TrEMBL record:
It is an enzyme of class 4 (lyase). Keywords: Lyase. One of its GO terms (biological process) is glutathione catabolic process. Its EC number is 4.3.2.7. The keyword Lyase applies. SUPFAM superfamilies: Gamma-glutamyl cyclotransferase-like (SSF110857). It comes from Nothobranchius rachovii. CDD domains: GGCT_like. Signal peptide: none annotated. The gene is CHAC1. One of its GO terms (cellular component) is cytoplasm. It catalyses: glutathione = L-cysteinylglycine + 5-oxo-L-proline. This is Gamma-glutamylcyclotransferase.
């Protein structure tokens, strides 16, 4: 089913961010909720040759990797119907054209005491993507991040902002991959 068909006739669309979208969504939204999705782990396995790196030295940004035992924390944004098309056009450039991500719909579980989960759109880069870098040791990833910079800023800023989000909004969650790279 095409994305257009999924959002057709909806009064709003939830978009889940687990990387830079947690601190810089770049689109209008009604409200946001901190929470998580199940079945994925966040990994610095995706290359970035525009925002946080360049063609010679691609930065490393996060993507989601399937893992039935894992969950990934982030922020879901509710985009009102009147802003859905504009928001998706913006994200298509930022995440798909420049980042190489694809979209999926996932179940989002809010952190707040809410029995209701939400269906949310998420952007995921897969190993089929030409700028996908894949696994490396945390030490190798940290070294690569430390020397890369792109049009949006230094790759270290991306790492620190993501770690800061986790400490402030999800202090009870231990993201070993993220914090090991930051150390």
């Amino acid at each position: 089913m095409k994305l257009h068909d999924l959002v057709k006739g909806k009064s709003s669309l939830w978009i889940f961010g687990y990387g830079s979208l947690v601190w810089k969504p770049g689109f209008s939204y009604n409200r946001s909720k901190v929470g998580y999705i199940k079945g994925y782990k966040r990994r610095f396995w995706h290359g970035d040759d525009f925002h946080r790196g360049d063609k010679e030295k691609p930065g490393r940004v996060v993507t989601l990797v399937s893992d039935q035992e894992a969950c990934t924390w982030g922020v879901a944004y509710e985009v009102p119907e009147c802003q859905i098309e504009e928001s998706l056009q913006y994200l298509n450039v930022r995440e798909v054209l420049l980042g190489g991500y694809a979209t999926e719909m996932v179940e989002f579980i809010p952190k707040e005491n809410s029995p209701d989960s939400l269906l949310a759109l998420v952007y995921i880069a897969t190993s089929e993507n030409p700028i996908y870098l894949g696994p490396a040791s945390d030490k190798e990833i940290a070294a690569q991040i430390s020397i890369c910079s792109g049009n949006t800023g230094h790759n270290i800023e991306y790492l620190h902002r993501l770690a800061e989000f986790m400490r402030l909004c999800c202090p009870e969650v231990e993201d070993e991959h993220l914090f090991s790279i930051e150390a």
